[in-house]
Amino acid sequence: MVKSPNPFVPWEETGIIGRKEQQDEFAGFLDSIAGGSSGILLLRGVPGSGKSMLMRKFRADALKRKMFAPYIKAERNDRIDRFTRELSEELESDIEARSAGGEISPQKAEVFRREKSAGTLRGIIGALERATAPAFPGVVFFIDDVDNARKYGDAMRHLANVASEKRGVAFVLSSTRRVSGLPENAKEVFLGPVSEQEFHDYVAKALKKEPKMGDECIKAIYADAGGNPRLLKQSCWMLYDAVRENEKMITKAHYTANMRNIMGFLSRDWFGRLYSTASSQEKTVLKTIARANAALSVTEVSTQMNKPMGPTATLLLRLEAKGHIMKLERGRYQAFSGFYAKFIRERG
Fold first, then answer.
1. 77-80 LR contacts (CB < 8 Å, sep 24+)
2. What's the CATH number where 310 sits?
3. 338 is a domain residue
4. Does residue 146 lie within any of the structural domains?
5. Residue 104 structural domain
6. Burial level of 191, CB count in 10 A (0-12/13-18/19+)?
7. How many domains does the chain have?
8. What pLDDT, in 10s, does the model give residues 145-196?
9. pLDDT tops 90 at residue 42
10. Are residues 179 and 277 located together in one domain of the fold?
11. Contact 199, 217 (CB under 8 A)
């Protein structure tokens, strides 16, 4: 038997695990924007929760409806003026493509090129409205990793103000960090861990032919990945490649035998860089949480570290903002996945 090509491609957009509720929510949001409403949708989640993948899926949905949907990825300490410049360039490329395809006349395309030079988001949206008059289809601006922006909260409020002044204008943003004082016209959608059943369904759909994956193996991967979509995919991807051609079933024994290789890959590809963003004090907190191998409250962390609660709470908030840990119900924290906790424990 010749093994089929590996179906678990971590960066493949077609392989979204679960997230039906969020996709349905975006469909409703898009309906409202097409109807003339405006607003902001903020996707928040830890690294690997699928924010960027959902953003690209949502952008494709908007483009199918003939809306404008420029996409950019924010960089560290970005300012609004760079957002504006890049979004303007994306819109101009789209308008040129639509003009070449006959959707927009060359004269109207020239209107946008001439008037977008105002250099502000309001000016760019106004130029777009005039270039597509009398049938403005709406525009959804996609900004990935918006929390990289300098003064993230101020940037969010600026975008909210722009949206509130227009009809058929929306911003879809992604962030690891929380934003304090979410604007009234903004809604946060939190991307928590996917369920074990959603992962099971994803594996079953991916492995239509042999080898199949045993339930115990699925459970073990899910437990270590903590329901993190990227970790689930990367684990399956490496495990599938490691299985011999004639195997009919991928078992927990296969997974256990390949754990060292999987951890080595995750450490090099992801965990090492993430861990380096923590200060020495933050690393002490991480080690305390990882050793406990369970969710801890602020009180429990401060007691185990023999440190006052105030500074401990501040360190926990910083670690959550960077994506190292997750805040669970009742104010308890844990490493964002079992894999990451294992990585920290192995570092002593």
1. 77/148, 77/149, 77/150, 78/148, 78/149, 78/150, 79/149, 79/150, 80/121, 80/149, 80/155, 80/158
2. 1.10.10.10
3. yes
4. yes
5. 19-190
6. buried
7. 2
8. 999 888 888 888 899 999 999 899 999 999 998 887 788 899 999 999 999 9
9. yes
10. no
11. no
- The sign of the CA dihedral 80, 167, 90, 141 is positive
Domain limit, last residue, from 163, 190, 217 = 190
Pick the last residue of a domain from 153, 172, 190: 190
In a domain, 218, yes or no: no
Average pLDDT of the chain? 90
